[in-house]
From TrEMBL:
This is Thermosome subunit alpha. One of its GO terms (molecular function) is ATP binding. PANTHER family: CHAPERONIN. Gene3D superfamilies: GroEL, GroEL-like equatorial domain, TCP-1-like chaperonin intermediate domain. It holds the Pfam family Cpn60_TCP1. It comes from the Archaea. It comes from Haloarchaeobius amylolyticus. Residues 1-20 are annotated as: Disordered. Keywords: ATP-binding, Chaperone, Nucleotide-binding. InterPro entries: Chaperone_TCP-1, Chaperonin_TCP-1_CS, Cpn60/GroEL/TCP-1, GroEL-like_apical_dom_sf, GROEL-like_equatorial_sf, TCP-1-like_intermed_sf, TCP-1_chaperonin, thermosome_alpha. Belongs to the TCP-1 chaperonin family.
Amino acid sequence: MFILSEDSQRTQGRDAQSSNIMAGKAVAESVRTTLGPRGMDKMLVDSGGDVVITNDGATILNEMDIEHPAAQMIVEVADSQEEEVGDGTTTAAVLAGNLLGEAEDLIEQDVHATTIVEGYHEAAEIALEAIAEEVGEADVDDEVLQQVAESSMTGKGTGGLTAASLAETVVEAIRHVDTDDGVQRDNVTVHTQIGASSNATELVPGIIVDEEPAHDGMPSTVEDASIAILDVELDVRTGDVDAEYAIDSIDQLNAAIDAEEGELEGYAETIADSGADVVFTTEDVNDRVATALANEGILVFEGLGDSDARQVASATGARRVGALDDLEEADFGSADRIHTENFGDDDLAFVEGGAAAETVTVFVRGGTEHVVDELERAIGDALDVVATALESGEVVPGAGATEIAIADKIRQEAAGIEGRKQLAVTAFADALDVVPRTLAANTGRDPIDALVDLRAAHESEGRAGLITDGDEVTIADPFEYGVVDPADVKREAVESATEAATMIVRIDDVIAAE
Ligand code: ADP
Ligand code: MG
């Protein structure tokens, strides 16, 4: 009896397990070489020829066209890592891959999948305890936050700019949005602009919108601006009954022209009389109106997109006005300074010191699109980790030191675990070794030697990581070198990798409909 359609494909038992494990491992393997400060970048070319150059695990996995469902689960590990804590995506994916690799060996030794799953969960619990023990004693102050930012950006194409000054900008941005209700991460935006070296990257105390003045004669800077936002077309009403004339004499023609001009002048007058000195409108502005407003020294931006209009409204406290007759001062927003600047093909409007929101923008500069794109990702990660570290106040040593410490604790506790489950718990520790091993391999060191040295240093000195410091690679206490990661990044990596690996291991039947 057939209960499945003839076209559906079914794999069962060991075959299903091993094909899933292989796919998951392969995906994790594909990002391994990008891990750490000496990690390499990947160039991804899509079918349309678009190129992305990146070192970011989540970005790589998402740009790759991955179809296998088990492999897709590793991509989800990176995605959830990115979503929850914003960094550690490569670590999480590589860890998940290695947990699968270890599971494969266990299955070959006839350890049952459920035993592996139980062992992994127990080991993950021990890992979380170990992470708690690794949390540094020192306060997470600006210096530590900068180290967190720098550690997350090393190895990213920061385009010649010293990571230190970028890290400073990132910390300043997060400090700006640190309120009694926690860090308002969403109030930090990143705006990229090609055309200058990345050294020109700076923090703008406000928002940036892609807009140019409606008229060349308008001021490019307005201080202490009173801002109106209009959803009103400042043009003659065409298609309107009032606007249709039967012209049979020159007098009537003149009267019609006068009526139009009067209408346009009326708009300009109403706005000038209202007291607004900067106007954003989502509709068009007639040239004549723009000229009149320019003569009054009013700065106008026309044809604003809805999201820009909303952003300006929320930053300045302006209420959007739907009819010119309703325009009154109560609807105005304000900002310390609005200025416009031309960048080659692009014009930008900077709205600084808006009255309503404490929004800040990291204005990212770089020579080419690839540079600013990768910089934007690196800064996005750094903003996330600094926010995470500031909120929890917990950081752990990076450079593999935390993974070495976790693995050590797991191995010690494994001794007290009975039966085959002990093998699974120990296997989890072996999987964790992938982080220091990979950091070593990516610096050209022998991974096994490095692991042995790191364990010995951990045994005798406590914290021991494989530090890349300029051209040097040394084994030392990462805290002393400022190589620190938020504790939550490690926790999330352990949890999401365990979840995906155990889910894949448990599957022994794959039924695919065609
Ligand atoms: P992920 O996507 O997992 O964040 P990264 O390529 O950003 O991958 O690498 C992060 C790892 O690099 C972390 O384990 C971090 O502690 C480590 N790291 C950062 N800076 C250094 C450094 N100077 N020396 C050694 N390891 C470092
Ligand atoms: Mg990172």
